[in-house]
Fold this sequence. Notes:
The complex is a heterodimer.
Chain A: E1 8-9, E2 14-18, E3 23-28, H1 30-36, E4 39-43, E5 50-51, E6 56-62, E7 66-70, E8 75-80, H2 82-86, H3 90-93, E9 102-106, H4 109-112, E10 117-118, H5 119-126
Antiparallel strand pairs in A: 1-2, 1-10, 2-3, 3-9, 4-6, 5-8, 6-7, 8-9
Chain B: E1 3-4, H1 8-13, E2 17-21, E3 24-29, H2 33-42, E4 45-48, E5 53-58, H3 62-69, E6 82-88, E7 94-104, E8 107-112, H4 117-126, E9 134-137, E10 142-148, H5 152-158, E11 172-177, E12 180-185, E13 194-200, H6 201-215, E14 221-222, H7 225-234, H8 270-279, E15 283-290, E16 301-304, E17 307-318, E18 323-331, E19 341-346, E20 349-356
Parallel strand pairs in B: 1-3, 4-14
Antiparallel strand pairs in B: 2-3, 4-10, 5-8, 5-9, 6-7, 7-8, 10-13, 11-12, 12-13, 15-18, 15-20, 16-17, 16-19, 17-18, 19-20
Helix pairs in contact in B: 2-7
Amino acid sequence: MMVPEGILCSKSHEYLLEGENGICTVGLTDYAVEQLGDIVFVELPEVGTEFGKGEVFATVESVKAASEIYMPVGGKVVEINEKIVERPEILNESPFEEGWLIKIEADDAHADSGDLLEYDDYKEEIE
Amino acid sequence: MGKKTALYERHLELGARMVEFGGWDMPVQYTGIIDEHKTVREKAGLFDVSHMGEVFVSGSDALAFLQSIVPQDISKLALHKAVYCQLPYENGGLVDDLIIYKLEENKYLIIVNASNISKDYEWFLKNKKDFDVNIDNKSDIYSMVALQGPLAFKILEKCGIDEAQLPEFFTIKNSVIDGIELFLSRTGYTGEDGFELIAKNEDILKLWNLLLDNGKDFGLKPVGLGARDTLRMEAALMLYGNDLDEDTTPVEAGLKWSIPVDKVEDYNGKDVILDQIKNGVSKKLIGLEMIDRAVPRHGYELYFNNQKTGIVTSGGYSPTLDKNIAMGYVDKINDIKLDSTIQVMVRNKLYNAKVVKRPFVHKNYKK
């Protein structure tokens, strides 16, 4: 699996990828989707909604259970991935590329992301 | 850590993810729940169900004893036949649900749920009274595997059992596969044709490997408890602890079809159960298919005309239908009937669901 460079991960298994113009992509790590198993349902917030760091912004349901997904940093939702609402299995197939959850305008990604880990450190942490 | 079945190490080798269930460490999935589910519906799957309990009842009063504890009429059970039974308390609520097999005259095998083994055994002893009966809990000696799916019988043929030698639906036979003595029963918990094989703990690994090897060409895969749950839910088979419990009578659970009204012998809960069959009950079990996009789960509330009317007992994604389905209890309101729209409360929002027939998926038994 290709892991995008510069990705930051939370201990609750969300990732944050800072793009151009300060727009950040938020999704679930490969480890998270593997642990969840077959994902069959995704509930995403409406565009324009603002969330603080650590707030629940989405729910992902596998065959077995529902899981709440937390904001790795605070910000406003500017885009949601409609494709995964129609085809939740994309999350399992491609968590870092096609299977992202939302794009946000972060309030202050640098100040907010102090507790997030680089991918290699995250991997070490969960093993 | 829970108890381990004799196949525990084998599950790890096969790449299973283990979970605790009913006090046991059991495989929840190997390749993935949806893949395993579809394998059972289309080909065949192999399940470790060694956590289930085996209790043998024998002696001159074996029949009389069983007649006193279940609503079903065991006197009508032919040799080698099986019957689905409930085990009621005096108030009609359930200790457990069971399968009873008649092995010989005066000898029966009862299969009980994993989490209820000691509770059931205690209950049997309490009800033994003056009956001349031996009650042997052999759950720690026996293991059980389930071979389920449309190709299950072909796999047993390949293991050396002629189709003519295979037991019929809901029948049990003494059998031998490659020197291993076992009980071979045509029962299961998936809604598919299939078998349950009960053998001694020391023989079960060999039997499991034999079945997997012989099943390879038929697409047989090991299947975990995750798919076992989605399969039984599609077939609308009850799960004790979810759909059945000590506060629910078999009549409320829609199991009236399994209870004879003309059984002569007295049994625990008979007055309540017969009264409910005659006069009706205040709650009923229904099947639901989600109209709105949401996943109903065990414990979620059900609403009708903005009034809370019941609760989901089993729910989730149906891989066969690619829809979200549920079973649950609702107050017996005449307006809640087939095709009615009711609501499920999911994370503080109401979502529409349609009342549908159970089972959700047509059962594919070979009768």
